[in-house]
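For reference, the entry.
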Amino acid sequence: MTGPPEKDEYQRAAQRDAQMWARGGSPRHAAPEGGSPPGDRRGGSRPEDRGRGWRDEPGRSAVPPARFRSYYGRPIVKKPVWREDIPSYFYTGGLAAGCAMMAAGADATGLPGLRRACRTTSLGAVGLSTFFLIRDLGMPSRFHHMLRVAKPTSPMSVGTWILSMFGPAAGLAAAAEAAHLLPERGVSGAVRRLLPGAGRIGGYTAAAIAPALATYTAVLIADTAVPSWHEAYPEMPFVFAGSALGSASGLGLLAAPIAETGPARRVAVAGAAIELAAARTIETRLGLLSEPYREGRAGRLLRAGRNLTALGVAGALLGTRSRVATALSGAALLVAPALTRFGLYYGGVASAEDPKYTVVPQRDRLAREGPASATAEPPELFGVAGMIRTVGARLRRDGRQPTTSTASDRRGINSPTTG
């Protein structure tokens, strides 16, 4: 009776090793049946090759040169399990944050049309953002369960609390815009008189929370083992902040009276400058890890978003008296940040699927900085404070590149379903 083929092969190999030991040889030189040892030319067909090995040839190593590959061609880093709900969640959260800041500015400068458009849009966008997050989580109770604890080291936990605090404030500000529809007498009249002041407090509160809402999602994706996301952690908050301002300016140009669009035009220029500069740095600074952002679906989306942003800004500056040109510019600025968020998302997924984006940068870093660089961890960065700390971290780094070997790498990919 014969056993499995693998077991028979192991038995034959053990017998060959025993015979080699008995003759005074070494089992590692034992040749497989019908051939020579791997890497040995003693069984070659040419007479001059017999008896020669890799070690006998001048300038050649005893070991054949290794080729880069992963086990069975599978990705080394597990790619994100997120669906398209997550980049949609990123975009709508940024839109809500940008509109909240612009609404507060419009309220302070006496622009009721711009304020009304931005407040109502902010509430609708944060509602959509919450919907996309809960849809990705799978059930509403999971969102509720994340509020049982506050974990400052978890971007998802911090983001859940930011979203929970921003929503009621944005809702109060938006409700104040409907105060004039209430009756003037009775309880409704009292509510009508109180709502404008309460709405102003809610609007300013939402504006204060808005920078954190716009940028914490950048920390969320940078605090993962996905190579192209993680290495771009210094620039990601600036891309997300600039695109939030850009989408809000687009909404202002599209929905506000043309006489009140002056602030939206200035915000469009500022947001586009921040976003384009940071996105350009991501596409050029990371070396090999910038490649996923320039190629494939991610590259097409990012180029389209960049072109729409440039066209929107040009139209906002040149079409100051045209309602049609202003509306078209607003639509372009409203769509461009969505393309940017999806482009960054697909670029990170592409870098996780190809093993070279994980191994090659690590080998280059080890060759350049030594083994100590494999254990270095970048600082945890959150919201506006994180953006400020990013600048200081880059100045202190003195030319060093961030590493992908962080605590989150060892834990696995930071997923919204796990926090």
Residues 26-55, 398-419 have pLDDT under 50 and may be disordered. The radius of gyration is 29 Å. The CA atoms of residues 35 and 247 lie 68 Å apart. Residues 186-222 form the longest helix (37 residues).
